[in-house]
């Protein structure tokens, strides 16, 4: 099975580049399963119901998220009705699912969404949440984890702690792709962050002038999604169909 996982899709520019490239990527890379992080989809914050349907109409199997998922109140109206839109599992106080199991081509794929504890909004301990999830002893062939976290050290430590238990763990949230994709010693495919899909010459998706003004002055400013040339970032993970072990993980940029 070949899995495509795409990093934080940011606003209209991210949606447009995704829609432009997704069919070609699926065809060229022979992709079987698609996961996107959609928490920045709608004007940079959260995801509207229309944009949820946009992904479902463009071959996406599961949509993950992170700390911005509930910034659009509309999410509260539909997240409990759609198992394939995830919120971080360790946001226990919020509605919605933190994981889902999807049967695709006869293979049971579990996608799990988690959020880090360092420099993030309050959430339950991510290790305790993972251990609680594993104690359920759910039946699946492949376990994919979107770990939405701020620091590289937290992502790496977590991945190494569950190396060999998770099929593939990708980091999201920083919007900057890292160059450390690899198979960990016990077999887990890993990358610290798969990056952002949005405007290249922006400050993690935001108009540069606005971010610079805030940094220079310390004053608040309303951020707007940047305009300009966009790129899509993600990874393709090749998983053995019999042993369900990751064979490779490769970055893509379009």
UniProtKB/TrEMBL annotation:
Q: Which UniProt keywords apply?
A: Metal-binding
- InterPro entries for this protein: Metallo-depent_PP-like (IPR029052), YmdB-like (IPR005235)
Domain of life of the organism encoding this protein: Bacteria
Q: What's the protein called, per UniProt?
A: Metallophosphoesterase
Which residue spans adopt a coiled-coil conformation according to this UniProt entry? none
- Name the Pfam families for this protein: YmdB
Q: Which residues bind Fe cation 2?
A: 39, 67, 148, 173
Q: Which residues form the active site?
A: 68 (proton donor)
Q: Name one GO molecular function term.
A: 2',3'-cyclic-nucleotide 3'-phosphodiesterase activity
Residue numbers binding Fe cation 1: 8, 39-40, 175
Report if keyword Metal-binding is assigned: yes
């Amino acid at each position: 099975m070949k899995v495509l996982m795409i990093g934080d899709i940011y606003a209209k520019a991210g949606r447009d580049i995704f829609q432009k490239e997704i069919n070609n990527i699926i065809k060229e890379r022979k992709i079987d399963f698609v996961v996107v992080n959609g928490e920045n989809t709608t004007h940079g914050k959260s995801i509207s119901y229309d944009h949820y349907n946009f992904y479902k109409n463009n071959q996406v199997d599961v949509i993950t998220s992170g700390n911005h998922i509930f910034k659009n109140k509309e999410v509260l109206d539909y997240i409990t009705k759609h198992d394939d839109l995830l919120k971080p599992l360790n946001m226990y106080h919020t509605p919605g699912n933190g994981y889902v199991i999807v049967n695709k081509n006869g293979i049971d794929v579990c996608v799990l969404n988690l959020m880090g504890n360092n420099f993030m909004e309050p959430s339950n301990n991510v290790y305790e949440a993972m251990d609680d999830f594993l104690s359920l002893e759910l039946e699946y062939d492949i376990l994919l984890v979107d770990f939405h976290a701020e620091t590289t050290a937290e992502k790496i430590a977590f991945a190494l702690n569950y190396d060999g238990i998770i099929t593939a763990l990708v980091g999201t949230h920083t919007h900057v792709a890292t160059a450390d994709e690899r198979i960990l010693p016990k077999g887990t495919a890993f990358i610290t962050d798969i990056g952002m899909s949005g405007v290249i010459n922006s400050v993690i998706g935001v108009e540069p002038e606005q971010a610079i003004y805030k940094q220079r002055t310390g004053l608040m400013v309303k951020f707007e999604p940047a305009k300009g040339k966009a790129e899509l970032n993600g990874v393709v993970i090749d998983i053995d169909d019999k042993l369900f072990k990751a064979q490779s993980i490769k970055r893509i940029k379009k």
